[in-house]
Amino acid sequence: MSPRNIKRDQLIREEKKQQILDSALNLGVRLGIGSTKISDIATESNLTQGHIYNFFESKHQLFMVLTEQLQHNYSNQLKEAANQPGTAKDKLLHLVRIFMDENNKIAEITLFLMQMQLSEMVTKDEKIDIVERSKENFNTVVSIVAEGQKTNLFRQGDTNELALEFYSMLSGFVLLRLRRTDIKVHLPEDHFVQTIVAAHLRL
């Protein structure tokens, strides 16, 4: 087999693997991870169960790979916000845009990860790993808030608590939008940040 064909086959394989992971996320949110079966994922992916098992030994392994991937991608998005030029408020605005962009599926990811932390199929050590990665991601938000405190843009106080207030309000909003499809909220991102900053972070 020529190098070109090998590369093409590898690309096709990676695309199928990602297709399976995307389907697992959608079903994990829609049906719950406990109720989702390999057969469901196969149907959602338009693949056979045999295809699924070519990539993953079990549903447990599939969901653990998905969890690590989601947390890694989420980490990159948070770091992208933290590395934006401008003030801490500008960085929070960028973070809000990431959360509000439905293509990023932040609400779905948040709900899925919450389930994984509580699931009986996840071992104690695996849950510890999930929590540790979550803490690392949250610390990126903490660093932005700390930057705002140093420049007197945000009020002084416990940095972790202020970051948690901001993060909780933002996460709660996107989760509400996911669960309550009857609620149509089109809130400009800059106004959203203004509201949160005024309520929780402003001097």
Counting DSSP H or I runs of 4 or more residues, the number of helices is: 9
Number of strands: 0
* CATH fold type of the largest domain: Tetracycline Repressor, domain 2
β-strand amount? under 5%
Low-confidence parts: none
Domain count = 2
Q: What would you call the structural class? A: mainly alpha
Taking the sheet with the most strands, its summary is: none
Mean pLDDT: 88
CATH superfamily of the largest domain, by name, is Tetracycline Repressor, domain 2
- Ends distance: 66 Å
Dominant shape: elongated
H/E order of the elements? Answer: HHHHHHHHH
Radius of gyration (Å): 19 Å
CATH architecture of the largest domain: Orthogonal Bundle
Helix proportion range = over 70%
CATH class annotation of the largest domain: Mainly Alpha
Description:
With 203 residues, this protein is mostly helical. It folds into 2 domains: 1-56, Orthogonal Bundle (Arc Repressor Mutant, subunit A); 60-201, Tetracycline Repressor, domain 2 (Orthogonal Bundle). The protein is 76% helix and 0% strand. It contains 9 helices and no strands. The longest helix is centred in the first third of the chain and has 28 residues, at 3-30. The protein starts with a helix and ends with a helix. The model has no long low-confidence stretch (mean pLDDT 88).
What is the topological layout?
Blueprint: H1 3-30, H2 38-45, H3 49-55, H4 59-82, H5 88-100, H6 106-118, H7 124-150, H8 159-179, H9 189-201
InterPro entries: Homeodomain-like_sf, HTH-type_Tx_Regulator, HTH_TetR, Tet_transcr_reg_TetR-rel_C_sf
Domain HTH tetR-type: 14-74
Protein name: HTH tetR-type domain-containing protein
